[in-house]
Design brief:
Length: 500
């Protein structure tokens, strides 16, 4: 075991924010490292330089974290708490995160590359918003008394699922952690949270706040480690009761297979290729604004990105011209610590290359590629300029596959039936958006789109109080809203005989 002093380092962000960064595995409320299990180096996507290395968990680290979570699950310090008391702990954590807004926003931006203005106004406050929302449910999630007549009484208890393995991606490190932790803690579970290799820093910092908030040891354990080693060890671990995963569909399928060993409960939030449909009668300014935000925000690294724009014949040319002009004006690339920046670098060189390979394949197959900011890409950083593929047909790979970058396809359609058929001809079913002034058509489309979420006259306007998730190969189960609790409790039935 290394000395505790080696498990933290002093970091300074380009805006002068300084903090002590924990580097260990957070197990049983302590930062530890497991000798021989290695570490992971995280990179600043804007400077392309290493920031620091954090401890990685191998099989021994995972075992230790799971054992801590298992112990905590039945320890009276957690098990005997009322929902109200769990809610208080969560509320305290939400407040501590708020107190650390400047530091956490700087960490998120340094590690992920997203603009500081966004980390400050959205990612960090959203963590607290989600924790508070689920803290509110912690004492408002009772079982039922079931009336079965006078000779018997029956009631249900909502009990924790148990030890939850939660595997999160790098596009919203804090937000994805909150979506997982909120409902799990609300329902009295214990957690091993595995962070993404690219963005380990913000949640390690929050781990310290979890201890400060007063959570008993082992209730929340936060580890890093590669997906293939730590992720796989968690997903297949016999002492884990539930796995919750957000990431690619391909990895989600592997996780599901691994979870089958002991029939873990499972929720998955995976990929998407969501359509955004603009009808002739739409408010064009509104459609252009949301279409841009819906695919270009967060460097296009959004599972619900509405990346397939389907535009009706009558407004197609007008829409494409306006969309390109709006993108050229709005998608300002630059230093994520600069207030003027709308789009920072992609999270990693691997992601940049992946997105660029889609752009190259589109060019090779003759798709028209428009990159308004191509001349203004910063000289360093993993940047991809915002890219619009026009007149794309449904057979093209950029139309069918998730690119996860600032890339939109635009395609033409004639009738509503045709638009709907194209929307639904996808293995994905995460989200969809429709722009029209015709109320009946808006609701028809909302009903018939094969998607977990539909936006009418907006896009990616998610809300903590509203369920989030997909159908088809976009996932299983829901996060957020009251629905988000379902994956985190088992219903037990109790039958009480009232006769002699
Ligand atoms: P990924 O799905 O492989 O990684 C997500 C998380 O899963 C990370 O914590 C990773 O360590 C873990 N993981 C990886 N392999 C695992 C395994 N065998 N067992 C258990 N856990 C494992 O995604 P990656 O490679 O970072 O990105 C590739 C593509 O995935 C992106 O281009 C994008 O299309 C998609 N993606 C989708 C996200 C979403 O929000 N739906 C988020 C991140 C990526
Ligand atoms: Mg990083």
């Amino acid at each position: 075991m290394l000395l505790a002093s080696a498990l933290e380092t002093e970091l300074t962000a380009p805006n002068g924010t300084r903090w002590t960064q924990p580097l260990g595995l957070f197990i049983d409320n302590e930062f530890v490292t497991i000798p021989g299990e290695g570490d992971i180096t995280t990179v600043n996507p804007y400077t392309e330089e290493d920031i620091c290395s954090v401890s990685a968990a191998g099989p021994a680290g995972v075992d230790r974290a799971v054992a801590a979570a298992r112990r905590a699950l039945s320890d009276p310090s957690w098990k005997q708490l009322s929902g109200t008391e769990r809610g208080h702990l969560m509320t305290r954590l939400a407040a501590l995160v708020e107190d650390n807004l400047d530091t956490l926003a700087a960490i998120e931006t340094l590690d992920n590359g997203k603009p500081l203005s966004v980390s400050r106004s959205w990612d960090v406050p959203h963590f607290s918003e989600v924790l508070r929302y689920y803290a509110g449910f912690a004492d408002k999630n009772p079982g039922q008394v079931v009336d079965v007549g006078p000779s018997k009484m029956a009631y249900t208890l909502k009990q924790p699922v148990g030890v939850c393995a939660q595997i999160i991606p790098w596009n919203y490190p804090l937000a994805m952690a909150a979506w997982k932790l909120g409902p799990a803690l609300c329902c009295g579970n214990t957690v091993v949270l595995k962070l993404a290799e690219q963005t380990p820093l913000s949640m390690l910092y929050v781990a310290r706040l979890i201890r400060e908030a007063g959570f008993p040891p082992g209730v929340v354990n936060v580890i890093n480690g590669s997906g293939a080693v730590a992720g796989a060890a968690l997903a297949s671990h016999d002492d884990v009761n539930k796995v919750a995963f957000t990431g690619s569909t391909a990895t989600g399928k592997q996780v599901m297979r691994m979870a089958a060993g002991n029939l873990k409960a499972i929720t998955l939030e995976t990929g998407g290729k969501s359509p955004l449909v603009v009808f002739d009668d739409a408010d064009m300014d509104q459609a252009v604004r949301w279409a841009h935000e819906g695919v270009m925000a967060n460097q296009g690294q959004v599972c619900t990105a509405t990346s397939r724009l389907l535009v009706q014949d009558g407004v197609y040319d007008d829409f494409v011209a306006r969309f390109k002009a709006y993108t050229a004006r709005t998608s300002v690339l630059g230093d994520p610590f600069d207030e003027a920046t709308y789009q920072g670098p992609q999270v990693s060189d691997a992601q940049r290359r992946r997105v660029q390979s889609y752009i190259a394949s589109a060019r090779d197959s003759g798709v028209a590629v428009f990159q308004p900011e191509a001349g203004a890409v910063p000289w360093r950083g993993f940047f991809v300029p915002p890219t619009v593929f026009a007149d794309v047909d449904a057979s093209s790979s950029v139309f069918r596959e998730e690119i996860f970058g600032p890339c939109a396809t635009v395609s033409r359609f004639g009738s509503e039936e045709e638009a709907l058929a194209v929307c639904n001809a996808s293995r994905y079913g995460l989200a969809g958006a429709v722009f029209t002034r015709d109320l009946a058509r808006a609701h028809r489309m909302a009903r018939d789109m094969e998607a977990g979420m539909v936006w009418v006259n907006s896009s990616n306007d998610s809300d903590v109080r509203v369920p989030f998730g997909g159908v088809k190969e976009s996932g299983l189960g829901r996060e957020l809203g009251e629905e988000g609790l379902r994956g985190y409790y088992n219903v037990k039935a109790v039958h009480v005989n009232l006769t002699g």
